Amino acid sequence: MPWFLRRFLRFLVSLLAIIVIPITWIVNKRRNGTCPPPTNPLLFKSATTLTMMIRNKQIKSEQVVSAYIERCREVNHYLNAIVEPRYELALRDARLIDKMLEAYTGSTDMLAEMYPLLGLPMTVKESIAVEGMCNDSGTDCDVRNPAKKDAEIVRLARAAGAIPIAVTNTPQLCMNWETYNNVTGITLNPYNLKHTAGGSSGGEAALISAAASIMGVGSDIAGSLRLPPMFTGIFGHKPTPKLLSVEGHIPDSLDPQFEEYFTLGPLTRYAEDLLYARN
Question: Is there a smaller number of Cβ atoms within 10 Å at the N or the C end of the chain?
């Protein structure tokens, strides 16, 4: 390469640095700080404890769901983790569960066996279908594409008594180790708003870490259920391939080997809830 071209390229790099460094400093200054800490005592209890309290009629599902909805509204301004909420529908679902419990006269052990996640709020990565909710996997579509039905893993969670309260941010087609797309922007880390929450299940990780969700569902082919929990101090588990159905996830693949590597799985704030959520 001629010497004058090398000097010109060096000049361009220096000029770019002069432009980019101040912009980066300004952006980071605006992101300075952390999420406000939770104050509601319900947010400090594990899913295992909360669902036991709901079954024993010590607390209502509506109280738990309301606490998490309130926390979502408080912290999402900082995190940008929620793509679309379903707060009113979630509260309706919680009231139906409370009404069912009022009339229930059987044993709590039988109730636990039938509905292990009874009355618990949950969040779902936006790439996983929740009926009626956005399901574009972070892509910029001309027309909104709500899911026509629940993904199989969401259907099973609902059948176990869980209540989806929101779908959460993901990079475009889940193809990044941080959570950013051109539609909803970047999701930030609740412990330091200058830092990433990881990806591609970063919306889930940020919300759970901030005590705005007790458990969630994400996906993983190259670390997406493991890296975000590592960045945000929570727990994620990539199950054995084919243990859980991947039906209802976008993107999908026709490659017969796809499901040997790609899985859906749980994220939780408490380790004891991982097995609970997986079941």
Answer: N
Of the listed 125, 127, 137, 213, which one is catalytic? 125
Q: Which fold has domain 38-278?
A: Amidase signature (AS) enzymes (3.90.1300)
Query: pLDDT of 116-149, one tens digit each?
Result: 999 999 999 999 999 999 999 999 887 778 999 9
Question: What are the tokens at 39?
Answer: 């104050």
- Placement of tokens 């391939």 in the chain: 241
Tokens of 223: 């670390």
- Tell me whether residue 200 is one of the annotated catalytic residues: yes
- DSSP-H helix ranges across 56-107: 61-79, 87-103
Domains of the chain, residue spans:
1-30, 38-278
**Could you tell me which of 191, 51, 56 has the C-alpha nearest to residue 122?**
51
Q: Give DSSP secondary structure letters for 193-245.
A: EEEE--SSSHHHHHHHHTTS-SEEEEEESSSTTTHHHHHHT-EE--PPTTSS-
